[in-house]
Amino acid sequence: MTEPDGPRVMLVDDHPVWIEAMAGDLEAAGFRIVATASTGDEALRRARATRPDVMVMDLQIPDPDGATCTEILLHEFPDMHVLVISASGERDDVLRAIKAGAKGYLVKSATPEELLEGVRRTADGDAVFTPGLAGLVLGEFRRMVTDAAKHNDSGPILTTRETEVLRRVAKGMAYREIADELFVSHRTVQNHVQNVLRKLQLHNRVELTLYAIEQGYKDEAH
Amino acid sequence: MRMQPVWISRRDSTASQVLLRPLLRVLNWLRIALCVHALVVNALRWHEAAHRGLLVAALVWMVTWTALAALAYSRSATRRQAFLVADLVVAVALMALSAPILGTSVFASDYLALPAYWSICAPLVVAMAYGVVPGAIAGAVVGGILVVVTPSFEPALWSWVVVFALLGAGIGVLVDLLLASMGERDRAFAETASLAERERLNRIVHDGVLQVLALVEREGPGMGPRGVRLASLAREQESRLRVLLLDRSLDQPAADQVDITAVLDRHESSTVTISAMAERVMVSSREALEIDAVVTEILANVAKHAGPAARAWVLLEHEGRELIISLRDNGIGGKAEDITKAGERGHIGVRDSVLGRIRDLGGQAVVRAAPGRGVDWELRIPVQ
After folding, report:
1. Domain end point (choices A110, A128, A146)
2. Between chains, do A17 and B211 touch, taking CB under 8 Å as contact?
3. N or C: which end of chain B has fewer CB within 10 A?
4. How far apart are the first and last CA of chain A?
5. What is the pTM of this model?
């Protein structure tokens, strides 16, 4: 084959001008655009057919929405890397996509450079943590701890260091600045962020399994 | 108490019309039934009556009036109004004529009036149109005329006043309650409709305007200095539009509780990023106003003192019984003491708007700053 061997990317957005603009920038940077889609239906069909390495997923697309597509696709292809982008930050949907296993979240007003960097990091399997996402994840862990306390068991908790790192990301500090302030290496900061996301996604999977088992018992009882 | 009859004051309100039309129809049937009852009652005491000719005339008038009422109350609002006055006069007149036409001794044998219970219909219409108090008064007047014409302490006589007044009041209360609950239902419908409408607008704006603005923002910088200016204008408008779309004040379950996340989201702009959890955090509207004022003041200070390229981040956390709001900027910074001292020296903004307000809310404000490294506020506010 003579095709370039950069990461294979699929773009999902209901606006053709956006797909065009993003595709242009990504191709210029050496990525291969293997498919595009403008609805949830198309996204699911074409992703199954082309198996891209990276999905750039707009959350506000017609049926099914981007968060649901992310859930379905990551269930079928756990190795796929999904980067969520969204024009208006609907926190519930972003959180749902992240819990399903998306690698990160960018707002649409991000610059082309930020988008390229985001796709590159996603392709490498790294987390793309924006301040908005850090705030969401912090809040979600707090909620899980409170919930677990209500049921008298222990939910997933963040270590003190992880909380420190996440709060600084949420306050807009760059990894470099955080590393300086906490006297750790840049890589350590990145690892903490990565861990937090993994913890959240793992917990989500455990909960889904528990839920499935519970439902199974209920069905058997009938 | 309604100052004007519903069919006048709320003529446009479909709720009251929807309620009153069937009620008036039921009342017409009641009037016919009571008319038949009165005819039977008077037929049974026909031989005892003092003035049979006048009794026939009065009964014919009652039957005629029953037919007229059926027509008049299905007519336009103004005619109803005039007819209602006439209706009351007829009811009072027939009641007043009871003793003279039947003969005092016949009337005093059981105190059953000439039109019997037919005369309650006019007070009931008053109750439906004007509510509880006028309904009770109309009932008392129509029943009370019997006592005026034949003064006596006989329970069978004065009970007319009590029963008619209570019936008028009772129907008035019922109609008032029904109208109130219909109004409540209509308000809920209207709210749902306006929410749906805003969602529809959201979709349209999202699909079109926001996307194009974001695209201008994105592509502008690649087109030279003019492009940069276009991009920054687009960014400004996009932020403003998004704040409008995010305005969730309508979804608030109760007006005295406000989602502080939505309040903070309104500060989002091209230079201000708001981070929060996905859940709502409800606080009292007083607390929300105070917090909003504090955040506004701090962000205004960033815009004024932190330098032109400064950006700001706001993080909202909810930990146990405490809200933690962190505000950080990457501007030119300064010394933390300077900022606190500015407060002590009487720098109004910091002293009153930030420290004073947070103290009033029972919270704490801590500020950290260093030259070249921005200013970092942490506000801790207790919530229930």
Report:
1. A128
2. yes
3. C
4. 56
5. 0.64
